[in-house]
Amino acid sequence: MGKKEKKEKKEKPLDRMTAKELRETALNIPEISGVHGMNKAELLAAIKKARGIVVVKSEKSDVSIREIKKKIQGLKAQKAEAYENKDEARARILRQRVSRLKKKTRRAA
Question: What's the pTM?
């Protein structure tokens, strides 16, 4: 008995897994399709749904990062138009809104 017996490898909690590990896990579940096109949040949700784990919403904002980034793109386009029309005040306001939304994405991540 000189060698230590190897303990069974326990599975990490889903929230602590990397996206690559989540993909490997999701590939073993036949109910989930399109695994390689999903990001980490989508993979987590799909795996939890397939396993029947009840998802408790966190206190973070309801808006997803993708939605916020779409808003940022729209505001950047408006800001470019404001600069073309030489409307400096409007461009400054839009720049501040973009900055606020970027901070929101960092908090949501």
Answer: 0.47
